[in-house]
Amino acid sequence: MQDSFLQHVEDFESWRDSGFPNVKVETREFIDNFLKPDKKWKMWNHQIEAVLRTIYAYEILEKKNCLLNIVTGGGKTVIIAAVLFWLKSVHNINKFLILTPNTIVRARLIQDFKDGMVFKNFEFATKQNNLLLNDLALHVMESGAQPQGILDSGIILGNIQQMYSTNTGGKRNLSYLQEFVGDIAIFNDEAHNTPAGEYTNVLNLLSKKSKFRLDTTATPNRADGQEPDSEMIYYYDVTRALKDGIIKSIVVYQPEVRLLQLTYTNYETGERKNVTELDAEFKEAEKGLAPFHWILDEEPMKKQIAIALQRHEEQKTRAKTRYKPLLFIVTMSIVEGERAQKMLQERFKIKTLLVTQESDEEQRNDAMLIGDPDSKYEAVVSVLMLREGWDVPQVSTILLLRKFSSPVYGQQVIGRGLRKIIRNQEEREILAVVDHPRLEHDWLWRLVAVSKVKQNVSDKDLFDDDEDLPDKPIIQTLVRPEKLIKIPDPEYDVEVDFKKIADDIPDDEIDEDWKSILESKTYEREIWTIAKTRINSVEMKSLKDKRVELLDGPDEFDFAMMGKYPRDVLENKFKQELLSICAGLLRETGFGANLRGILYQVMLNHIKTKIFSGKTLCDVDDDDIEFAMISMLEIRKNFTKSIIAGIVGTK
Fold this sequence. Notes:
Elements: H1 9-17, H2 25-34, H3 45-59, E1 65-70, H4 76-91, E2 96-100, H5 103-113, H6 117-121, E3 138-140, H7 148-152, E4 155-159, H8 168-180, E5 184-189, H9 197-206, E6 210-217, E7 231-236, H10 238-244, E8 249-255, E9 261-266, E10 272-275, H11 282-287, H12 293-296, H13 298-319, E11 326-331, H14 334-347, E12 352-355, H15 361-368, E13 379-383, E14 395-401, H16 407-415, E15 430-434, H17 442-447, E16 452-457, H18 465-468, H19 498-504, H20 514-519, E17 526-532, H21 567-589, H22 596-610, H23 622-630, H24 632-638, H25 641-649
Parallel strand pairs: 1-6, 1-7, 2-4, 2-5, 3-4, 5-6, 8-15, 8-16, 11-13, 11-14, 12-13, 14-15
Antiparallel strand pairs: 9-10, 9-17
Helix pairs in contact: 2-4, 3-4, 21-22, 21-23
């Protein structure tokens, strides 16, 4: 995303050095108090920079929609609070709407803004305007709650879904704001979550009443490949935060890789044939495996977990009893999450919490409190959950048991562990990430400025601070901003029809013929699976283009067999898995989660036709349900963004 502030940097620096001229008297008074050095809770330099740039953009440049791109762990909430109080005390805006993408982000903000806690901690108010805090009571929009608090409170906080016109509560909340409230300022937290049509529609409708909108995010590129419609005025990335000692340094650990044996399995007949790298059939077998299969077989998973637990023990040593380090594991599906939880608890004796979209309220609350020293959990497994807004600084080790293809979600997951535990810029901290070379995450490690990638690691290796703590990075800086070329606004001799130009831009592709496309898909019941591994080394030609892993495994292991469940349990697991995939697809393709039921029904009918031979879930054999669950990855791939757009667009 382009930094629109670069051309103003020189003037901004001059404005700051000159004592903030050409602003309102009250603004200068706010800044004087804001910059006082003797406050108990001090803001970081980048937070101060972000607030001053926002003031400059609003009062000097007269910008209405601004965006701050600040790394996870960079303290965006404090910046929001500072800007909010400045707008209240200087520009007489009395109503503030803070929008969040999910309940996890909302819960974090409730803690910060309840009883004016964040304003008091950072002493934004002076003795003269301290009474203004009484006008900043918090109202939280919740399902089924009355909207009266919108009128009575200064700060309205809620999920964007509670403003959607597609539900009764959303219509009512939106109507109250439009009809009974005067000028407002909007804070769009985690702004990369704005691709859904309803989300954009809400922001557009409220723009007529909004005097100012501030978007905040750590990943401005949205899941649909587009960018928010606000102007980025500040970019504070991972590299700068590492240099300033604001976040943890990331170190990636990958296992050693050698030789792996595969087994060809006919799902219907059970016929099996073993092949190794030395066999001519190996390359064909390897093509039939998705990358994550290399780590989800029981033995590779066991080794990855063992490596992660070794890193976890090292983090305990670094903690020196000051906090309780947490191991965070990420999987793609509920079945995989359950397997990881079971292995951690039964084999490694680590009390582990599993959080999925089907988790109950108690489990979600446990996830919010898991960083507390009194928490009974030492590890947490997440399936499409615990991303933005889940801020537990004690996350010290992350184990990836899934492949990321989206830069947005990859950064979000790593971001859960970036927040420092000890608020001391001089004390270096490590985020240990255990990855597998087969997942091919090199692009992600470049994106999040990984400090080191340690290869050929085993669960026996030990690393101390001197070996793993990297030097602070050297970053590029803009030395001579005066040399930037300022591009003037275009001047037109004739009137330009911008509406026509916009109308001529094609919308995202929609497959209106999605039914026939899905009808053409088939699912073969012959699959290649990881069967076992060999302990002994094999004299062989040098492997240049692929890596295979040496592990100590059982003689026989059928990846297809997930364990026999009672029929009701099996059916429930199938439903949960399908719902989880539906929600993930809708999120990744930019559609609202409230459409999950529509997509679920279509996917269920697709499975019924293609795998269940037209039978309902109640009537099919256990083997058919198991095969459907094995085929979920392939089914997921067939539901592309354009097909999903066709499905939800026809409802």
